[in-house]
Design goal:
With 230 residues, this protein is α+β, with helices and mostly antiparallel strands. It folds into two domains: 142 residues, Winged helix-like DNA-binding domain superfamily/Winged helix DNA-binding domain (Arc Repressor Mutant, subunit A); 76 residues, Ferrous iron transport protein A (FeoA) (SH3 type barrels, Roll). The strands form two sheets. Strands 3-8-4-5-6-7 form a six-stranded antiparallel sheet. A two-stranded antiparallel sheet has the order 1-2. A hairpin with a 6-residue loop joins strand 5 and strand 6.
Length: 230
């Protein structure tokens, strides 16, 4: 698969995957906004990838992945997430500093090297950000998660994954203590897009809604636990 569609088309497929991961489809205008391409370029890429069988798209309609497109994107994600795991575990990278190099390598790494890397890492199930690593055929196992910004007050939840690719944003979230499997209690949600207040290991902190929306959570309990008088 490596190099089969070219880096530009592979990145375009991944953009469609991210924007439709929870189902549905994405508009051409939204893809243009996310990828930075002009509308005409996005339309042409969508047309060509539809002809190749990777996208579902009709003239002036929204875009979604075909089954072949979803498998292709899953295999790309498999490479990226294994590379990120390697870079953090064995190459001394921080969890918020792996995207750029992993993104470069995913487009040139062969299936053979991908499988060898997985064996060397002893078949990890999740990458350093908590994202599941797809199977060799591109199948991606999902578990039900909810952004921290949408959880109700009193919910006890565990960090499942940290989304996004911006270095400074990921670094700040990590420094606040939001890491996979960390338990969080939602204490308060200010109105009108105000900050979300949470408890992490007995420490209270507030986080902007824009950041809280990047933190995917798994609910542990719908009731607040009593800790440190909270």
């Amino acid at each position: 698969m490596s190099g089969g569609l070219g880096e530009s088309n592979e990145m375009f497929l991944l953009a469609v995957f991210r924007l439709t991961e929870r189902g549905g489809e994405v508009s051409i205008s939204r893809l243009a906004e996310v990828t930075g391409y002009g509308m005409s370029t996005v339309s042409e890429k969508a047309r060509r990838l539809t002809e190749k069988g990777y996208l579902l798209h009709e003239w002036r309609e929204a875009v979604s992945l075909s089954e072949d497109g979803r498998r292709y994107a899953g295999k790309l994600l498999r490479k990226r997430r294994l590379i990120e795991t390697f870079l953090v575990r064995l190459a001394g990278y921080s969890v918020y500093d792996v995207y750029e190099d992993a993104c470069r390598l995913e487009h040139v790494m062969s299936e053979r090297l991908t499988n060898a890397l997985e064996r060397m890492l002893e078949y990890p199930r999740f990458d350093p950000h908590g994202h599941p690593i797809p199977d060799p055929d591109g199948t991606l196992a999902r578990k039900k998660t909810t952004p921290l910004s949408l959880l109700d007050v009193g919910i006890v939840a565990e960090v499942a994954s940290i989304c996004g690719e911006d270095h400074e944003r990921l670094k700040y979230i990590d420094e606040l203590g939001f890491r996979p499997r960390q338990t969080v209690i939602v204490l308060n949600k200010a109105p009108f897009e105000g900050p979300v207040s949470v408890d992490i290991d007995g420490h209270r902190l507030s986080i902007a809604v824009s950041l809280a929306s990047c933190i995917e959570m798994v609910v542990v309990s719908p009731y607040r636990t009593q800790r440190n008088g909270l």
